[in-house]
Specification:
This is Kinesin-like protein KIF6/9 C-terminal domain-containing protein. Residues 15-148 form the Kinesin-like protein KIF6/9 C-terminal domain. It comes from Cryptomonas curvata. By secondary structure, this protein is an all-alpha fold. The protein has a single domain, classed as Helix Hairpins (Orthogonal Bundle). 85% of the residues lie in helices and 0% in strands. α2 (16-25) crosses α4. The longest helix has 58 residues, at 92-149.
Length: 155
């Protein structure tokens, strides 16, 4: 607007980088705030995603270890049953291993589903941040042109 032209009237345009920093603190404050909020939310969700990946990987390691324990236990049970000529019987230890394994698998699946949701949120927030950044730059360019480049047309 007219106030913008008075801002640069008779003065050489400031360094564009410095003008951008000034713009973010004044006319572009709202757009800059939206960008900062979007970036903070994006960082928070990425951190949640990283933490969840660690939990899921921990579940996977536990599942693998439990499977190994269970396989070893089953071999012992089969071997003992063959020696005695008896039927296979699941003892308390094997039952506890199976129950724990099922619980860890359920936790793994739950974590994996949560991770899929987080990934889509992170993707959305990334796009939102890019849009906010583009809007801030677009607004700045328009402001800068109006303030420093749009002069009266030469006669």
């Amino acid at each position: 607007g007219g106030a913008g032209k008075a801002l640069g009237a008779g003065l050489p345009p400031p360094d564009k980088k410095q003008a951008f920093e000034d713009f973010k603190e004044t006319d572009g404050g709202a757009a800059n705030g939206r960008l900062r909020d979007a970036l903070k939310t994006l960082r928070d969700k990425r951190k949640q995603q990283q933490d969840l990946v660690l939990v899921i990987n921990g579940c996977k390691r536990e599942i693998d270890a439990l499977k190994e324990q269970l396989d070893g236990k089953r071999e012992q049970v089969v071997h003992a049953a063959e020696e005695r000529g008896a039927e296979l019987v699941i003892d308390d230890e094997e039952f506890a291993l199976v129950r724990t394994l099922k619980a860890r698998k359920a936790a793994y699946r739950e974590g994996f589903e949560e991770l899929k949701v987080l990934k889509s949120e992170v993707e959305y927030l990334g796009k939102l941040s890019e849009q906010a950044r583009a809007k801030l730059v677009f607004d700045f360019e328009a402001w800068y042109r109006a303030a420093y480049e749009d002069g009266p047309a030469p006669a």
